[in-house]
Amino acid sequence: MSETTETAERTETATDQPLETTSGETEEQVREEWREYVFDGRTKLAAEDLDVYYGDDYALKKVSIEIPEESVTALIGPSGCGKSTFLRCLNRMNDRIRSAEVDGSVRIDGQEIYQESVNLVELRKRVGMVFQSPNPFPKSIRENIAYGPEKHGDLQTGLLARLLDRSDEDEREQLVERCLRDAALWDEVQDRLDDNALGLSGGQQQRLCIARCLSVDPEVILMDEPASALDPIATSKIEDLIEELAEDYTVVIVTHNMQQAARISDQTAVFLTGGELVEYGDTDQVFEDPRSERVEDYITGKFG
Amino acid sequence: MAGATEGDLVTGGTSQTNAVAAGAVGLAVLLFALALAALFEAITISEPVAGVPVVTLLGLILMALGGAVITFGVGSYLGYVETEPSPSAGLVAATAFSTIWFVIGGLVASQTAGLGSLGSFLVASVVGGGTFALTALPREDIGSTLPAGALTLLTGIVFVTGTIGPSWVWALGFEQQASFTAEFVIPVLTLLCALISGWAAAKAYGGFGARGRHIGAYVLVYVNAGAIIGVLFVLIAFTTLRGVPGLLTGFEFGPGVGPEVGLFGVSVALPFSLPFVMNGAALLNDFQGVLPAIVGTVWLVIGAVVFAVPLGVGAAIFLTEYAERGRLTQAVEVATNGLWSTPSIVFGLFGFAFLVPRFGGNKSLISGMLTLGFMLLPLVLITSREAILAVPDEYRDASAALGVSKWQTIRSVVIPAALPGVVTGVILGVGRIAGETAPILLTMTGGTFVPGGQTVDVIGGFQFTGAPPFVANPELLQATTALPFQLYALITAGVGLGDTVANPADFQWATALILLVVVLSFYAIGIGARYYFRRRLQS
User: Fold this and answer.
1) Residue A138: which of B400, B402, B537 has the nearest Cβ?
2) Residues of A in contact with B538 (CB under 8 A)
3) Which residue of A has its CA nearest to B407?
4) Is B15 exposed, middle or buried (0-12, 13-18, 19+ CB in 10 A)?
5) Residue B382: CB partners within 8 Å, gap ≥ 6?
6) Is the confidence at residue A155, as pLDDT, over 60?
7) B537 to chain A nearest CA, in Å?
8) Which of A99, A119, A151, A198 to mutate to test the interface with B (most CBs of B within 10 A)?
9) Between B171 and B154, whose confidence is greater?
C-alpha cells in the first residue's frame, strides 16, 4: 500500500535546504526512496501527514508511515524528537494533554481514528499501551489483570453479580492465568495472585503491565521505552516477550537503545530533531546501510 | 569514645575526660527532667528529699554542672584535654549569652545593689558587652563553656544560699499586682541553665569544632522533642489524675448493679455501674452524670462528618480531576482558605441566624451538626485535594490506556489511593470541631444539666409518617447538650452545682477527662481507618 501518488505533495514539506547523503542524493530523494519501501504483510496502522503541536511548538511534522501487522516496529531517535508523541497519537493518549493539537490522519485497518464518531473506549481496547516506568495499580495482581475487563463490563464479579448468580469468577481466573502466561509471568506469581502488585520487582511489574494490557484483547501494543527502567536481565526477558508477542500482535516500540531496536524489531523508523521521520525501512537495511547521512551519523554515534 | 577528626584518625587517651563531659550532659538531662516535674507540681520544691530540701538539691546539682563545664573548657584551653576547637564560638552564641548576662547584670544591679535605672543599665551593658567579648573573641572551648558554666554556677549558688528560697516572691510592683513565686521561678531558671549547660557540655563531649557543634545541636533537638512528648503526657496525666475521682463517684461492680441495656429486644443488666457516664442530671439521682452530653457530642461529630465528607471529597474531585485551572478553581481555593480561617463564633452566629429559624425556630441537634459540618468542610476539601493531587498520574494513564472512563478511573483507582490522606484530614477536622463550644452554644444547646431521660436517641427517633416527607425525626430537632458546652457552663456559670453535685471541682475535671477520652477515641478510630486503607494499598 505504498502511496507514491502523494509523493509530489510531500516533497514540499521536506527540509528546505537539501542535505548531502551517502549516495550523493538529496534528502528529498532519500525520502522518496524509502517511501516506496514495501513490506510483507498487511498494513495495520497508517499515519498520513501527521502534525502535532504543543502550543506553538512543533512536536511532529508531516509524519507519514505504514506499519505492518504482527511484527515489531521500532521507533528510534534522540530525546525530544517526537517518537513518544507519535506513539501516543496511535491510541489518542495525546487527547489527555490539553495543549496538544493533532492534525492529520491515523488509520487502523483503514478506519480513521481522528474523527468525531470514534469510540475512545473501543480504540484503546484495540490499541493497548505499556509505559516507560512500570505502573501497576496499588491492588492485587489478580485485580490488576481483571481491572480492564471488569470496568468494561466483560466480567461480572461484583456483589450484585454474585447474588444474582451471574458471577464470572471462573472466566476471571482463566483470563488472569492466560494473560500472565502470555506475559511470561505466571510461573513466578501463580502462588501469590492476591499479593499487592507493588511488591513485585521492577521487571515483574513491567511484565504485569504487559499482561494487564493483554487482558482487554488488543490488536496493537504500543510500548514507550518499556525496558529503560530495568536491569539487563529483566530487559532481556522483556525483549524475548516482545518477540513472542509479535506473533499475534502488532507491536510498536519506542526505544533509546539502538542495540535493542536492532535485536528485536523487523522495521525501524528513525526520527530526528524537529519531529521529522527521516528514514523508515527494514531494520537490517536501516542499521547496515542507511540511506540518509544524518541517520548514519546518528546510528554510528556521531550525532545525538 | 574516640573522636574521628581530620588531624588524627583515632584519638586516644581521652576516655576519662570525655566521661566528665558525658556526666555533665547526664546532669543537665536530669536537671531538665527535675525542673519539668517541679514546674508541673509533680514534686514540691520546699519538700526535703533525703534530708535536703529540693531547692538546695537543685542548687548543688547546678553548681556541679557549672563547675564541670568550666573545668572542661579551661582544661581544653590549657591543653590538658585533647579537643579540636574552632577559633570562635560564633555570633549566635555570643548574642544569646550576652543577652542573658545583660539581664543578669541589670537584675543584680537594680535588685541587690539597689542602683537606679541608669546605673543598672550601665552595669547591664558592661556585663552584657563583656560576655559578648568573652564568647566571641577567645577560642571556642572558652567561649562556649565559660559564660554557660558561670551562669549555671551562679544560679546554683543563689539556690543553695537561699537568696531565692522556697518562700521567695518577686512582686513586680505593677498595677496588676503580678508577682513571680519561687514555685515558678526556680524550675524555669533550672530549665534554662540545664538547657544552656547541657548544650555546652555536649559540645565539650564532642571535642568542640564541627563534631562538637553537631552533638550540641543533637542534644538540643532531642531535648525539645522529648519536651513535646512530655507536655502531651503531662497534660493527659494531669487531666486523668484530677478527673478519675469524679468519674468513679458511685462506681459499683457486681452482677445486676448496672442499668438495663436492650439490644435486639434482649434486655441485660450490666455487671457494673458508672453513674458519671450512665446517668443524666436530675434532682432525685443519687449521683449526677453527663450521659446526655456524651451522646450529644458523639452524634454531633457523626452528623458533621456525614455532612462534610461527601461534599468536601466531591468538591475536591471536581477541582482536581475535572475543572480546568482558572478563575473558578482559584476562587474556590480562596473561598476555602477563607472559610477555614473564619472564627468559629461567626459560624455559630450564621447557624443561629440562618439554620435555627429554618429548623423550627428552636436550637436543635441538626443545626449544631450542620454548623460544625460547615466548619469541617474546608479542611476536608483542602486535605482531600492534596491527597488526590498526590496520586501518581501513572495510575490515571494506565487506566486510560485500557480504555476505562474517567469517572470509573476516579472511583476505582484514584479515590482508593487517596483515602488515607482524606482520612487524615477528617481526623484533624474532627479534633477541631469536637471541642468547639461557641458554635454549639448558639445553635444547639439547651440547659446545662440534662436529665438522663432526655438523652438524644437519633436512631430510635426516626418515625414514618403518613404525609410527606414520610420520615420525621423529632430527636434531631431537639435542643441537647455536648461536652465542651457542658464544661464551659459548669466552669463559668456553675449553674446549680451546689445543689446537685457534692464536689463541683471533681465533676468538672471528670467532664474534661470524658471530653478528652471522646475526642481521643475519634482520633483512634481515624488512625485505625487510615492504617486499614494504607495496608490495603500496600499488601
Assistant:
1) B537
2) 138, 196, 198
3) A151
4) exposed
5) B336, B337, B340, B425
6) yes
7) 5
8) A151
9) B154
For chain A, what is the largest distance between any 2 Cα atoms, rounded to a whole number of angstroms? 74
- Condensed to tens digits (0 to 9), the pLDDT of residues A68-82 reads 988 999 999 888 888
Residue A153 pLDDT level (bands cut at 50, 70, 90): confident
Angle, alpha carbons B222-B90-B106 (nearest 5°) = 90
C-alpha distance from A87 to closest chain B C-alpha (Å) = 12
CA angle centred on B347, ends B343 and B348, rounded to 5°: 110
> Domain coordinates of chain B in residue numbers?
15-88+138-235, 291-493+519-538
Considering only alpha carbons, which residue of chain B is nearest residue A138? B537
pLDDT digits (tens, 9 = 90+) for B81-108: 777 888 888 888 899 999 999 998 888 8
| First-to-last C-alpha distance (Å) of chain B | 43
What SS3 state is found at A102? strand
Nearest residue to B142 (alpha-carbon basis) of B71, B241, B37 = B71
β-bridge pairing A276-282 and A267-272: antiparallel
Q: What is the pLDDT of residues B453-505, one digit of tens each?
A: 777 777 777 777 777 777 777 777 888 888 888 888 887 766 555 556 667 78
Report which of B367, B400, B378, B374 is spatially closest to residue B313, judged by C-alpha positions: B378
Do the Cβ atoms of B171 and B179 come closer than 8 Å? Answer: yes
* Cβ partners under 8 Å of residue B368, min gap 6: B300, B303, B351, B439, B440, B443, B444, B445, B482
Set out the domains of chain A in order of their start, with CATH numbers.
4-135+220-300 (3.40.50.300), 137-199 (no CATH)
Regarding the domain with residue range B291-493+519-538, which homologous superfamily does it belong to in the CATH classification?
Answer: MetI-like (1.10.3720.10)
ipTM over 0.90: no
